[in-house]
Specification:
Order of helices and strands: HEEEEEEEEEE
CATH superfamily: Superoxide dismutase, copper/zinc binding domain
CATH topology: Immunoglobulin-like
CATH class: Mainly Beta
Number of domains: 1
Helix content: 10-25%
Strand content: 25-35%
Shape: globular
Structural class: mainly beta
Radius of gyration: 20 Å
Distance between the termini: 45 Å
Largest sheet: 8 strands, antiparallel
Length: 177
């Protein structure tokens, strides 16, 4: 190869490799849930869900929580927040029939890490989920309810984790593209 063309060829190869690498991790479909308080509660927030490869990145901010406390946080089977207590969202989203548990072990698809409120009652969080999707398949979160609970999830009590009343409810909706 001509020695003057080698740097150009090398630059093209490196650029192509970088582009292919970026495409392998390009964000996929996304969804958003707007959380509104159930009767007698003040919790409100917005949570986003973004496919990144074969996992879902979850980011959110919820206000109006009990300060300095962990709160159970789950996707529920129905995208229905019409009841004042959030019970219209049904049980935890569980298309694979697994027991309730910690997201680090065997668990419902709807079991997520607890969210932790700071001294001002605000939870600002980000985590990855590996057993759900956005936009396709039986584990697709779109159309399901998202619930914040009054108490911490014990990740053991079946089928709900003993995480108390439902203090905020939202429906996970696919973002337009």
């Amino acid at each position: 190869m001509n020695t003057r063309l080698r740097p150009l060829a090398l630059a093209l190869m490196l650029g192509s490799a970088a582009l292919l690498g970026a495409c392998a991790h390009a964000p996929g479909p996304s969804a958003t849930a707007t959380l509104l308080p159930t009767t007698g509660n003040a919790a409100v927030g917005v949570v986003t869900f973004q496919m990144v490869g074969d996992r879902v990145l979850v980011k959110g901010k919820v206000r109006g929580l009990k300060p300095n406390q962990d709160h159970g946080f789950h996707a529920h089977e129905k995208g229905d927040c019409s009841s004042g207590d959030g019970m219209s969202a049904g049980g935890h989203f569980n298309p694979t029939g697994k027991p309730h548990g910690s997201p680090l072990g065997d668990h419902h698809a709807g079991d997520m890490p607890a969210i932790t409120a700071d001294a001002n009652g605000v939870a600002d969080f980000e985590f990855m989920l590996s057993d759900v999707t956005i936009g396709s398949g039986p584990t697709d979160l779109v159309g399901h309810g998202l619930i914040v609970h009054a108490s911490q999830d014990d990740y053991a009590t079946q089928p709900t984790g003993n995480s108390g009343a439902r203090i905020a409810c939202g429906v996970i909706k696919r973002d337009p593209h």
